[in-house]
Design goal:
This protein is α/β, with parallel strands linked by helices. Helix content is 33%, strand content 10%. It has one domain. The chain has a five-stranded mixed beta sheet with strand order 2-1-3-4-5, covered by helices on one side. α2 (33-53) links the parallel β1 (24-27) and β2 (69-71). The longest helix is centred in the first third of the chain and has 21 residues, at 33-53.
Length: 204
């Protein structure tokens, strides 16, 4: 509940010309385009259904402001986690800048240090990097399949236990140090994950 309250309070601000929440998702593999679109639609439908049927009736007001921002760049197909993280670090400030209103006196640096810059949208992203996910008739392409990687922007392999929440240490087990800082997640947990990330205490 706390995360949703924070989301509702931070979804808009005087600096911006819009109100938006939701994660960025990277496509990192070749595959069937129709299967990719079906997966994106499944996430969007999950968000709509979740908010519509949640016991808190006021949450459905968040639905129109959800944006699953898709990055489908063939130059990133096959990219490892650290390359995606570098791209995201460039994308985030540019996106924040594009949202500034015409009368705003704030700079990107100003905004990054505010509540808007600390939201999950600008500190975490999703990555699809398993080729079997995008097979045209994949029988496992449903909401309960562990299809996605949730990647934390905060990752320093030299100080990972100080800078990274334990939830994101999963990816350190079998990968090179620079490719850590991620966790495998379910499509059907998208809203719950965003809610959780909204209220993570990095000092725990």
């Amino acid at each position: 509940e706390l995360g949703f309250n924070i989301l509702k309070s931070e979804i808009t601000g005087p600096e911006f010309h819009d109100s938006v929440w939701g994660l960025v998702i990277y496509r990192c593999v070749e595959g069937n385009d129709a299967a990719w679109e079906r997966m994106l639609e499944a996430i969007r439908k999950h968000v709509s259904d979740y908010l519509e049927h949640h016991p808190r009736k006021d949450l459905k007001d968040l639905a129109p402001f959800h944006d699953l921002h898709v990055i489908d760049d063939k130059a990133l197909y096959g990219a490892r986690i650290h390359k995606l993280r570098e791209h995201f670090k460039t994308w985030a400030p540019k996106n924040l800048e594009s949202r500034l209103g015409p009368d705003s006196t704030s700079t990107v640096t100003d905004v990054i240090s505010t509540a808007a810059g600390s939201t999950p949208r600008y500190n975490f992203f999703l990555a699809v990097d398993e080729s079997d996910v995008l097979l045209p008739d994949n029988p496992d392409l449903h909401l309960k399949s562990p299809l996605l990687k949730l990647v934390s922007l905060q990752w320093d392999c030299k100080q990972m236990f100080q800078t990274t929440h334990p939830y994101f240490l999963e990816g350190f087990v079998e990968l090179d140090e620079e490719d850590g800082g991620w966790a495998e997640v379910y499509l059907s947990d998208y809203v719950d994950i965003y809610n959780h990330l909204q209220r993570i205490d990095w000092d725990d």
